[in-house]
Amino acid sequence: MKYTLLAATMGVIFSQSTHAATYQLEELATSTNAKLHYVTAFNNSGNAIGVTRGQYNMPIDTAAIDFDDAGLKSAYENQKVYEESIDKTITFTLEDIENNIINADALTFLMTFLQQRTRDPKWQKISDQVAVDYATEVQEVILFDQQSPDYDGLTRSVINQYTAVSEDNSKTAWGSAPYQKIQFTPEGRDEDTYFVRDFESRAIVVSPFGEKTSLLPVYDTHGGVTLASDITLLADGTYLVVGDSSTGIPEDRQKNLDDNCDGVDEPVAVCIWSYKTSETPLFDRRAMKWHLDSEFNVISATELGLGLTRKDDEGMAFRSTAVGVNTQGLIVGYSDIRWKDTDSRVSMPVYFKDGNVVPFVNQEDDYYRGKSVAVNEANVITGYATRRISGVDRSKFFYHDISTGDTKFPEDFFSSASSIGRDINNNGLIVGDGEIETSTSTNRRREGFLYDINTEKFTNINDFLPCYDTDGKTAYPYILAEAIAINDNNEIIGAATKTVKKTDALGNLVLDVNGKQEFESVVVPVKLTPINGEVESCPPTVQDPYERNGASFAWLAFLMLPLVAWRRRS
Q1: What are phi and psi of 85, to 5 degrees?
Q2: Comparing C-alpha atoms, which of 216, 200, 138, 213 is closest to residue 171?
Q3: Is the Cβ–Cβ distance between 518 and 502 less than 8 Å?
């Protein structure tokens, strides 16, 4: 849970018959330095945290670019062909970039090119995701980044994930070390530049006053990893933080390092980095609980176990991760377990209690992947599990009551729609998001939902918003795409889309070939507050939000994927 106060009653605010409450939407502060804004958590006081993406004026280290690289030249020629296909003329040359003349189109080209080479250690590493506090103004929170020795400002090469906030505004996050350049001469070749960093993931706790405490790995060889997913404030003023930590390197992966990282063709650090960032994990990882005192000193660090026992011939890495915790110390997350009665493994929703890792989703229903993501003070868990529906992997949100042992998968938007439960409050209300399109596409549009356990009522949250803007004529400008969290005041935070004037990679307004302003859909952070009112019956032309905004959301869904992916991993 992202909050600790237990509601006095389990009151029901949504009636099956009357829909007695609606919501008022408030857009939170946004940054002038970024295009897209996401919220990740808030507390009962309404203090919200999150991340921004689409950072303007990203720094490019032109000294690290090999302008003779065939791939770079080919990408530039392809860009020219594309521009011609849409009756435009390319506005930059590679020579311009080499001379540090970088306009918005050149910056967009370079960002795309570098993102496609994230696995190549010879190219600059950049990341446009920034951790932020949403206050009167958006405030950047620097986790592990440092000032660059090669250009002005931060390196902007780090991962930043801001995950949870407690009732006293203590926060958890995790991030990576910045990349650094090293020189190395491979055997029989010329000296070259490589990009490396010390660690890929480190958990951190940020006090209400901004002081930071890193949570170190159980196993820290090659930097190790830790991740912090949630924090809760206890009655005695201490804190519980949950996440995971590296605990070792399994036999097969250690053999990979021993056989290949010999420092002949590439630096040893680069070779190890390639294994640390591989899709096949390098480290064994276990769910963790850290107990911190009121001054954020670590009192204890406890491994929470794994949902299976490693066999003698299994040399691969296994993982369990804690995602949520309540004030009673009940912890939820996910773990590798056995698939039915086989030796195969799957990662499934679990909770951690009394030294046990407890899976609860029935595998006989063919769910083979999933996560528990939140738990309330009544020990009711929400999350999602995945199975194949009509030949396609689809997730379904669930809730599990530990006191009864019952797991339920409520009906959502339609039978083949994917849905994810993201949070549950102490009033028995679950928020999340699900697919609203019935197309056969694997990337279908999503909208936020609210589910009331007490009444078994599932509602598209957009149904609780007005049909029209304040002028009573213009279609309502917001569509809630994700409902991320709900507190005990039944307030909801999430990601909404709206149409705004289009900006380029430098933050400047974009005009079309005729000099007219272009528009685009962006993600903005929003807070929804319940109010007394009536649900409006919108005319059909107004009820379809994607028609009324007149914008394509395909690219927006793509940009949202990294954040969604993290929420499923965390």
Answers
A1: -70, -20
A2: 213
A3: yes
As a whole number of angstroms, the longest Cα–Cα distance in the chain is 78
With bands split at pLDDT 50, 70 and 90, how would you rate the model's confidence at 563? very low
Q: How far apart are CA 56 and CA 380, in angstroms?
A: 42
Reduce the secondary structure of 505-555 to three states and give it as a string: CCCCECECCCCCECEEEEEEEEEEEEEECCCCCCCHHHHCHHHHHCCCCHH
Instruction: Quote the tokens at residue 63.
Output: 């000294």
Name the nearest CA neighbour of 37 among 508, 494, 546, 506.
494
Instruction: Give the span between the Cα atoms of 310 and 522, in whole angstroms.
Output: 46
SS3 44: coil
Contacts of 246 (CB under 8 A, 6+ apart): 217, 218, 219, 220, 224, 225, 226, 283, 284, 285
pLDDT for 11: 34
Q: Which of 457, 451, 442, 436 is nearest to 543 (CA)?
A: 436
Taking phi over 0 as left and psi of -120 to 50 as alpha, with beta for the rest, 260 belongs to alpha
* Segment 309-347, tens digit of pLDDT: 999 999 999 999 999 999 999 999 999 999 998 999 999
* SS3 state of residue 566: helix
In sequence order, the β-bridge partners of residue 288 are 243, 303
Distance in angstroms (rounded) separating the CA atoms of residues 451 and 430? 5
